[in-house]
Amino acid sequence: MTHNSSFGNHLPSPCIVDAGILVNKCDMQRLLSDLNRVRYIYQQDDQLLSAGEGQVMDVFADPQQSTIVANQTLYLNVCSFDYLQIGNFEEKPCFDLIQDSRQLRLIPLTTPLQDSTHRISTATLEAVVAEVLSANWDMRLDDEEF
Length: 146
Prior knowledge:
By secondary structure, this protein is an alpha+beta fold. The protein has one domain (14-118). The protein is 25% helix and 38% strand. Strands 1-6-7-8-2-3-5-4 form an 8-stranded mixed β-sheet, with helices on one face. Strand 7 (92-99) and strand 8 (102-108) form a beta hairpin. The protein is extended, with a radius of gyration of 21 Å. The chain starts with 19 loop residues before the first strand and ends with a helix.
C-alpha cells in the first residue's frame, strides 16, 4: 500500500454508502443537487408541521439566505441545517436535514437515472444560450454590413 505524504497524517475521508451522516456542507450540497421531484415532511419536536410534494429548484450554501419550501418548490440551503442523515423511510431512500429539533425529510420520487434524459445541466444550458446569442449577434453584424 502506498502512502502519499503530501496529505499529512490526516484520517481518510468518510465513505458513505446508502446510510450515514453528512456534516460537510459541500457533501450535503452535492448529494441534494441530484434531487428533482420529492415528497417532503417537515417536523419540529416530532410534531408534523407540513408535508407535500415539490420540485427541488436550487441547492446552495449561503448563511445569509433561507431554505424555502412553498408553492410546490424547494430552495434548499444546506447552511440551514446541522447535518444530513441518509436512510430509509417506508422502504424508500430518504434524506433527513436536521437542525436542533427541526427535521426536513426529503423522499425522492424519481432517481437521477430516471431524470438524466430530462435534466439539462446549468453549464450546458448556459453554453447553449451563449451560442444562440452569439449567432444572433453575428447575424445582425452581417445584416449591417450590406
